[in-house]
Design brief:
It contains eleven helices and three strands. The protein is mainly α. The chain has two domains: 63 residues; 160 residues, Intergrase catalytic core (hpI Integrase, Chain A). Helix 1 crosses helix 3, helix 4 packs antiparallel against helix 5 and helix 5 runs parallel beside helix 9. The two termini are 49 Å apart.
Length: 254
């Protein structure tokens, strides 16, 4: 249905601008004009690329049917689609949320912010996984792959204080992921206007903050437990965007 709509849009444009054109006479020049008008109308690159794919697919079909046509979209350059940057929460908002909470939520925020672990990795923690002297946590992530992450003395000191409010032995937390997400959201909404207030947004924040402070992609990927460095690159990109925005915002000519 989507491809039919895209082809109809192109056909309508051809009829309005090149009445004498036939499928066999349409060239890349026609497509260049069409794409330019789409861009001027504000059509997103992904939508433009989908239309080009529909046109290319149609010409492929006509060729297979034995028609004497040349695909004008065969060598047409696709528009670059901007990468979606990760949602983050301002660090100062997380700091205020941590400072104004107690108990299990206080512990969750502290550990998520300082380690960047996933919410399920947090909920799977046992007390024996924590080394209070080394400030480290043993994490068993996706695919049962183990890694070691580090938190701060402050977070572990606070964790020791609330230990009796959690499970004092065995697994630290007694609730499921849905409950944990809701508990965090209920607190964070009072301290931040960020569009996404989730455990994964905290993970994004931690990783982006590391990148802004100079951590390389290998280091961040190792801490987060990423299997492929391509997954980690988005945090480097996000850090560069934030750095550029800060430079533009605080330049003395603004």
């Amino acid at each position: 249905m989507g491809y039919e709509k895209d082809l109809h849009k192109f056909l309508k444009w051809i009829r309005a601008n090149h009445q004498d054109a036939r499928w066999s006479t349409i060239t890349r020049t026609h497509l260049d004009q069409f794409i330019t008008e789409l861009a001027e109308e504000g059509l997103k690159p992904a939508s433009t690329n989908r239309i080009l794919s529909a046109i290319s697919g149609l010409y492929g079909y006509m060729k297979r049917q034995g028609l004497d046509v040349e695909n004008p979209a065969k060598f047409e350059s696709r528009r670059k689609v901007a990468k979606a940057l990760p949602n983050t929460i301002p660090v100062e908002d997380l700091r205020r949320a941590y400072d104004h909470t107690t108990g299990a939520v206080h512990t969750m925020i502290g550990l998520l912010v300082t380690t960047g672990i996933r919410i399920q990795e947090l909920l799977d923690l046992n007390w024996e996984d924590i080394d209070f002297k080394d400030h480290s946590l043993k994490i068993f992530g996706k695919g049962a792959k183990g890694r070691v992450v580090y938190t701060t003395p402050e977070v572990l000191a606070d964790l020791a204080i609330v230990k009796n409010q959690l499970h004092p032995s065995g697994r630290m937390f007694w609730f499921d992921q849905r409950t944990a997400r809701h508990m965090l959201w209920e607190v964070l909404k009072d301290f931040s206007q960020a569009p996404q207030l989730s455990p994964h947004a905290i993970r994004h924040t931690m990783a982006t903050n590391m990148a802004k402070r100079g951590a390389n992609v290998v280091m961040i990927g190792t801490i987060l437990g990423h299997e492929h460095l391509k997954t980690t690159q988005k945090y480097i990109d996000m850090a560069q965007v934030e750095t550029r925005q800060a430079c533009q915002q605080y330049t003395m000519f603004n």
